[in-house]
Write a structure and sequence with these properties.
The chain is built from 21 helices and 2 strands. It is an all-alpha fold. The chain folds into 2 domains: 133 residues; 220 residues, Leucine-rich Repeat Variant, CATH 1.25.10. Strands 1-2 form a two-stranded antiparallel sheet. This is DUF913 domain-containing protein. Pfam families: DUF913. InterPro entries: ARM-type_fold (IPR016024), E3_Ub_ligase_DUF913 (IPR010314).
């Protein structure tokens, strides 16, 4: 308790660094805690804490001490001087170790979230260590794992008949029956019966879906459910990092083929379940897709092949769009990205988008969100 209180006090001092008129104490705190040395007091304490967190055979630090330690790291990393110190002490490997450890307890999810946020802050200073320790793959694997846990509670996912090239435009309102050989799931890999949506059993893993898909065909999400708030915070932290990584020149080669693995399936589930994940996560997931397309337009066809773009269009043009300012404001960017090639534009027009957009613009449900947006714009001018 004394150690935790001491760390909380140091964290408070760091937090007030930007607002206080007193001489800055950050450098003094770094030197006192030896934060910039691999064998320093703070780095050694962090590694000891993480070793105990990620080893079931060891007794963990008290919850209050672990929480205070991770909070201190986050506030320290939020300053360039503090971030440099954490880079110098080689803390990246230990933080990624937390991300790679799969403990289902609610308390541990909080530590993973804090580790991801610290990593996000210091990767701009030390991308080499992040790449050396396969940090990006660790993030994607963690995202997939957390989405798998969410699937057990909310197994619904949007499913759309596969389009055959050269065939007439289909009516997306009626979804006429197709033969199993002419229809596939949204990944374009496995045949399914005619349906636009389906559920997973709560005991089913993602891979087991493919064996059970003919038996479970509910048409809507399970109502009244929401993602556990600590898990939602972790998902948000990972998606925020991915969105930023797409625009980092040093990450271009690494992120170019990031959509070739499990990431699209994770994004599909979030986009399919705006009610479960909430408007903020839904918006962030769509933003990740949009940012990737604008950064790598040549990869748009692969997203169309794996069905991610269809899920996104269906969520925005067939389901109810979340009545949130950020979501509504992002619609032009999303649709612009989806229509960058001829195939995307044709798919977009199949949904009769203008009918939906006019309904949104004129609906009393969405007007309050748009009104708040206009109120914000008037402060800076409509051209801002």
């Amino acid at each position: 308790d004394i150690k935790a209180s001491a760390l909380k006090t140091l964290t408070s001092i760091i937090h007030l660094e930007r607002t206080t008129k007193h001489p800055p104490r950050l450098q003094e705190i770094i030197e006192t805690t030896q934060a910039n040395s691999y064998h320093g007091f703070l780095p050694a304490l962090v590694r000891q804490c993480i070793d105990k967190l990620t080893d079931d055979s060891n007794e963990r630090f008290p919850q209050s001490l672990s929480t205070a330690l991770f909070s201190f790291l986050y506030h320290l990393a939020s300053y360039e001087t503090g971030g440099d110190a954490l880079v110098n002490c080689g803390i990246m490997q230990s933080l990624i170790k937390v991300v790679n450890y799969y403990d289902e307890s609610q308390d541990f999810i909080m530590f993973v979230t804090r580790a991801v946020r610290v990593i996000d802050l210091i990767t701009s200073l030390d991308i080499t260590s992040f790449q050396t320790n396969n940090g990006l793959q660790a993030f994607i694997n963690r995202l997939e794992h957390e989405i798998t846990q969410c699937r057990k509670e909310q197994p619904f996912i949007i499913r759309i008949p596969k389009r055959s090239q050269g065939t007439p435009t289909i009516n997306l309102d009626s979804h006429p029956p197709l033969s199993p050989s002419a229809q596939s799931d949204i990944s374009g890999e496995h045949p399914i019966l005619p349906a636009t949506t389906m559920h997973l059993s709560k005991d089913m893993d993602t891979s087991e879906l493919l064996d059970e898909q003919h038996e479970l065909m509910p048409s809507s999400p399970i109502p009244g459910l929401s993602c556990y708030h600590q898990r939602a915070a972790l998902l948000k932290s990972i998606l925020n990092y991915l969105k930023r990584a797409f625009t980092e020149p040093t990450m271009a080669d690494t992120t170019r083929h990031i959509m070739d693995a499990s990431l699209p399936n994770s994004l599909k589930h979030i986009i399919s379940n705006a009610e479960y994940y909430g408007p903020s996560l839904f918006h962030l997931a769509t933003d990740v897709v949009t940012s990737f397309i604008f950064q790598e337009p040549s990869q748009l066809s692969s997203l169309q092949d794996n069905g991610l773009t269809d899920v996104l269009m269906h969520a925005l043009l067939k389901k109810d769009v979340p009545a949130a300012r950020d979501v509504l404001a992002s619609l032009p960017n999303i649709f612009s990205a989806l229509c960058l090639n001829t195939r995307g534009l044709e798919n977009f027009m199949e949904y009769k988008p203008f009918d939906k957009l006019f309904c949104v613009l004129l609906s009393p449900e969405y007007l309050p969100a748009m009104r708040r947006r206009r109120g914000t714009d008037t402060i800076y001018g409509t051209a801002s």
